[in-house]
Amino acid sequence: MTHNQTHAAASVWRRIVLTAVLLLTLGAAPSAKAFPNFGGWYIDPNCCVVTGTRATIQSPPYNMQSNGWTNGQGIALMRVGLSKLSGDGAIAQIGFGTAQAQFDNCGTKSQNTIFIEWKPSYYPDDTPFYTCVWLTTFGATQTFHKYTVGRVAATCQSCFGFYVNGSLQFQPQELGFSSSERTFAAGEFSDKNPSLHAGGVAAGCYGCGSGEIRWERTSGLIGNNPSWTQVWQAYNWNGDGLWRVSSVAQPFLVCYPRGIAGCPAN
User: Fold this and answer.
1) Nearest residue to 205 via CA among 197, 196, 195, 215
2) Would you give the end-to-end CA distance of the chain in angstroms?
C-alpha cells in the first residue's frame, strides 16, 4: 500500500534504526495470560459508547523485537483494539508485531507481521482461551495499513470482525460483549514471568502520512458505513515511563525505548 508522507511523518521516522533492547514493566488488560506492558492511548466508557475502532499505523524500518521471557524471547506488538475489563475480560485487537516466543496458538514470528487476536468474555483469563492468527508478513519496511476492529451485525450484538485496508480478514467472532470498556491505540511487550521485565525495540506512527486515518471510534456497525469520530482526548498509557507517546490530538508516535534514534527522549 503506497502513500505520500507528510514532512512531519518523514521527520518522525528519518532517524529510526534498530538498536540494543532495554527493559520494561507491567501493564493491564493483557493479551494472553502474560505480564504485558503498554504504551499509547486509551479511552473508557465515560467517554462514549464504542463498538469499533480504527487507525492507519505506519510500521518502522526494522523488525520489532522483545527481550522478555527466558533467553531474550517475548512479544512486541503495535495495534488498535477493544476490551472488556469486568468479569473474565475479553479482547479483540488487530495490528502488527513479532513473537520470539509462543504467542497463543500462533507460534513465533521474527519479522513484522499483521495479526489478529481475540478472547471471549465467557472464558477464563488463561492462555488456552486466547486465539491469534498471523496474516501478511511485510518485515523491516515502512508500510501503511489501516487496521479496523468492531461489531459487524445487528443480529449478533457480540460479533466482532477484523479488517485490513477495509477488507475482512477472518470470520467474525462472538465475544460475549457488545461495547468496549477500554478502547486503545497502543504498543505492547509481554512477559510470562512477573520477575522479568519485557522490553525491546518497537514503534508505530498512528495517522502519519498524507490523508491517513489517525485514530477513530464508532458506535455503529462495521460494514454498514458507520460514522467515525476522531479521538481527541484519551488517557496516556505508559508502563514505566520509557515509552514515547506523542499527543493524541495529531498524528502520534508510539515507540520504545525513549532516547534511541527515532524515539525522542521528550
Assistant:
1) 215
2) 31
In a domain, 201, yes or no: yes
DSSP H or E segment with residue 78: strand 75-84
Nearest CA-CA partner of 110 in 120, 119, 121, 97:
97
Report how far residue 112's alpha carbon sits from residue 83's, in angstroms, rounded to the nearest whole number.
23
Number of domains in the chain: 1
Rounded distance, CA 117 to CA 29, Å? 13
d(CA 6, CA 25) in angstroms, rounded, equals: 33
**CA distances in angstroms from 12 to 7, 217, 258, listed in the order given:** 9, 25, 13
Q: List the grid coordinates of 132.
A: 491469534
| Whether the predicted pLDDT of 34 surpasses 70 | no
Higher pLDDT, 204 or 261: 204
Question: Which structural domain, as residue segments, surrounds residue 184?
Answer: 7-256
Question: Whole-prediction pTM value?
Answer: 0.86
CATH number reported for the structural domain that contains residue 248 in this entry: 2.60.120
Q: Does residue 1 sit within a domain?
A: no
Report the candidate in 220, 217, 215 with the shortest Cα–Cα distance to residue 178: 220
pLDDT in tens, 77-131: 999 999 998 878 899 999 999 998 777 788 899 999 999 999 999 888 776 788 9
Characterize 198-217 residue by residue with b for buried, 16 or more Cβ atoms within 10 angstroms of its Cβ, and e for exposed: bbbbbbbbbbbbeebbbbbb
